[in-house]
Automatic annotation (TrEMBL):
This is RGL1 protein. It holds the Pfam family RasGEF. Residues 62-193 form the N-terminal Ras-GEF domain. It comes from the Eukaryota. GO terms for molecular function: guanyl-nucleotide exchange factor activity.
Amino acid sequence: SLFSWQTTFQDGGEEVEDGAVYNVTLKKVQIQQAANKGARWLGGEGDQLPPEHTVRQYETSKIRAIKAGTLEKLVENLLTAFGDADFSYISIFLATYRAFASPKAVLELLLDRFGNLETSSHGEEANLNSLESEMVLRAEIASVLRAWLDQCSEDFREPPDYTCLLKLLDYLKNNMPNSDMESRVQNLLKQFQNQEVEAVDGFCSTSSSDQVDGEEVEISNPEEFSSFQDHVVAEQLTYMDVMLFKRVVPYHCLGSIWSQRDKKENKNLAPTVRATITQFNAVTKCVVSTILGTRELKIQQRAKIIEKWIHIAHECRILKNFSSLRAIISALQSNSIYRLKTTWMCVSKDIVLMYEELSEIFSDHDNYLTSRELLMKEATSKFANLDSNERENQKKSQKRLQLQKNKGVMQGTVPYLGTFLTDLIMLDTALQDYVEGGLINFEKRRREFEVIAQIKLLQSSCNSYCLIPDQKFIQWFRRQRHLTEEESYRLSREAEAVADTNILSPKSQKSMVKRISTLFLGTDVITPPKEQPPKSSPVGGSSGESTDSASVSSCEFNHSETEDVCVTPVSSPEDPLKKSSVGSDKGYDSDKGSISSDKGSASSKGSVFDPGLGPESGSIPIRDAGSGLGSAPRALPVYNRQSGGSCIIRVSMDGLQASVYKSILITNQDRIPDVTQRALLKHNLEPDAVEDYELVQVISEDKELVFPRDANVFYGMNSHVNFDFILRKRA
């Protein structure tokens, strides 16, 4: 007989218990059996039933997934989720609980409240008195602890006391003596105690104070840089990126944690994420310094260095290293490099085409759809999937790729971490931490885990890399003196005098740049000086698009912490470099770790979602925290567009740093006092001082919209201009 299965799911509504709300889904499995020969048990004789006759059986099971609950209920659910068929719950909880609880609080509940085997027999239900129930509970506790140690062992790194690890070890000695788990915890404790408090690897240091003894900061030597083969540079950058990315602790990326990094007491928060940002900036600064650091270079020599970096970027693409690839592209589109019109004219046409194709990977079209799709496609492939519209570049790419394949070693994928940080910040801004009754909104954590799981997948893929550090290159890389933005701009002017007298110096333009946005909602971004690029293309050609429809972005990073700013040039209509539209993008702010972009052009995105497009164009749909599993998804609120009764505005404080913004989620129910209070909280000011401030929307350079004290912000605002607001003390 032949069998076939068909599974369907049906929304079963919600179940409410004391301290918890569950989504219920009914799983219906249809088992179909061909019965022409096996029909005797149905009363048929021989082959009397027609051949097409089938027998169907149905099995229905219930899946309960906790939607919201108290911390106590969420911890208890760790022990019952498997029985409720919520098989991913433990992983989701462990990856996200740091947003609402500490390891100590969770461990105490797990061990003292639910895992105390000595007192569990005194429970209300009689079956707890049985040995079988105690064995089941012991197995459940062991399963949770094993998953915790497997997935999040860093949670127990608490030098010098290691309170949680010692508590866990004591529990195991009393309840599971001589078990493998006890030995494992003892080994972990010894490992932590024998290690120094982990700091970021020294090779990614970029400031002079971080240099290794005996190493002196130096201006890049073109000859020394040229001596390194392109693939060697790419491999070494990938080696450094891999080492840092594998050490990223996923919960450090959560929006609720990462967005708090700028507070004084959190200067050491999320060190693993900060390390990747430092490395990203080091690569960007290195590109700029090698091109501009030597005054004596001729234009052709400088063009050769640009060509070399484009080749290195291409090698990074072959190695599936999107972090250094993006850093190099951002540097080449930085203001001081982008404006070198004559130098770009000396760059080979084929190489410029290669550069444009690499830049297109980070196009901001459809919520950076190209880079997102490519990243996940590459994550599950052994080697890079290279396509080129230019025949010569395609030949070169395939040749290099074949060399990689001949080595027989699989490759991992290093992502641009900013994409994930952006998504997590957006989720944190858009979804509430708590729902009605003060319950923790676990639906929000499930959504966050979808992003965290991608990070973990890519981290796992990085184990496939087999790269050996080249100390000669690493030492050269660390020795580079990074130019400040003012220095690189001055050197760029010296290299090529500005023919356009309308181009202003950075200092004179600072007052003109009104606003700059950030992809990290709820974080600070510093408005940079900006230089308009030449009217004509550095390399010739025409894109046929206006500067209002797309923008080229880039970042320059200063060596000085007080001067770290992101520079975003806007391309000319005729400029083929504009076609890269690298995401208006986003280099990291080397001090704050922000990713910023110019919002002067209509296509530059102020959030992870395209404010000018609907959900079908790249917005990530999200289920309402108050809806069941079967309810229709809705789109997240976005900046610069009112949708579904909500939107995101940016609020700066007047009289402080006018260019530092905080992103605020507002709905059509919010009035001035509510929005003002949230803005004050975001800016770390006293929320009780609401009456002392007025909220103003910036309409243009010389026009403002002042709101009455009790106005509805959503309906009162001008939705045809940028959603940029100022909070100003009343006269």
